[in-house]
Amino acid sequence: MSSSNGKDNKNKSLTDKKSKSSKHGIKLFGNTEKGSSPLKNHTITLIIAAVAMMIGITIFANMPKKMTPEPPTVTPAPTAVPTTELTVAPAAATPTDPTTPPPTQDVEPILEILPQYLPLHQENSDLAGWLKIEGTVVDYPVMHTPDDGEFYLYRTFDKKDDPSNQGTLFIDKNCTMNPRSTNLLVHGHNMRNGTMFNTLIKYKKESFYKEHPVFEFDTLYETGKYEIVSVFLSQIYYETDEVFKFYHFYNADTQEEFDEFIRNIKALELYDTGVTAQFGDLLVTLSTCEYSRANGRIVVVGRLIQ
Questions:
Q1: CB 3.0-4.6 Å disulfide test: which of 124, 142, 175, 298 passes with 181?
Q2: How does pLDDT run across 135-162, given as a tens digit for each residue?
Q3: 10 Å Cβ neighbour count for 277?
């Protein structure tokens, strides 16, 4: 009896504990019974979702990545860097003494053609001057054509062929008029009819020289009188001949060059004129054919006196 009561009491105690456990919902694992609590169901759902998420992350991490082409790299155009120019301020003007005149500058003067030659120059711009020997037939225009030195050898003033072949007086092509050469060499024919430079032959006689010691040569811009320095005979030589050639003297850059020319023409003169020239003088040389020798010339050299 007592044994039976103890057994019953023990069973009752276990039953009470079981009832209490079920009442408070402490059972978490085991068979799911009908009427389980919502907390238990929610927990299971979270566990399943977490496992699925872990599986998804693992699968995505191990998937091959799709290669996305990189956009082409564009190199930006270089930007122009503005340069800074250094501006130099002008030097301050130096005060000047108001009583001191300003410095003068060498300015080429504007040359005006003399009124008496203007109409002729308008008719023919090759006109360079006019030559006259008082008391003779020499009273002619003088031409200058540097590009064609002998253009007027057999042409008239109006550029037409001259049937008489006397041509027109002309200045050697190697001379210049502006600026003017030291020596202007004038050529002309020795015509048998006494025209052109036939008069120069008369200078062989000293008496004729004494009657005509001066000739006139005007450029387009100024008048001029020349006293004769020397009258001499010469000729046109071969290029290889090492002799004095009067027709090669146009400019004297040094006094030595000028003095050498004067010394040579004075050594050759037919008579003593008593006249010489100094470095800086302007000269005019007249030349024409002279037939006492082959390629002979008679030459008259004058220096400007006014």
A1: 175
A2: 999 999 999 999 999 999 999 999 999 9
A3: 21
- From residue 120, alpha-carbon distances to 72, 78, 130, 166, 253 in Å are 83, 70, 11, 20, 33
**Paired tokens of 9:** 């009491």
Indicate whether 269 pLDDT > 70.
Answer: yes
Average pLDDT over all residues of the chain: 81
Structural contact between residues 130 and 117, judged by C-beta atoms closer than 8 angstroms: yes
> What secondary structure, in 3-state letters, does the chain show?
CHHHHHHHHHHHHHHHHHHHHHHHCCCCCCCCCCCCCHHHHHHHHHHHHHHHHHHHHHHHHHCCCCCCCCCCCCCCCCCCCCCCCCCCCCCCCCCCCCCCCCCCCCCCCCCCCCCCCHHHHHHCCCEEEEEECCCCCCEEEEECCCCCCCCCCCECCCCCECCCCCCCEEECCCCCECCECCEEEEECCECCCCCEHHHHHHHHCHHHHHHCCEEEEEECCCCCEEEEEEEEEEECCCCCCCCCCHHHCCCCCCHHHHHHHHHHHHHHECCCCCCCCCCCCCEEEEEEECCCCCCEEEEEEEEECC
d(CA 208, CA 201): 10
**Residues 280 and 245: beta-carbon distance below 8 Å:** no
Region 124-131: mean pLDDT is: 98
Q: What tokens were used for 54?
A: 């872990």
Which domains are delineated in the chain? 174-304 (2.40.260.10)
| 8 Å CB contact between 150 and 188 | no
pLDDT in tens, 69-119: 444 444 444 444 444 444 444 454 455 555 555 555 555 567 899 999 999
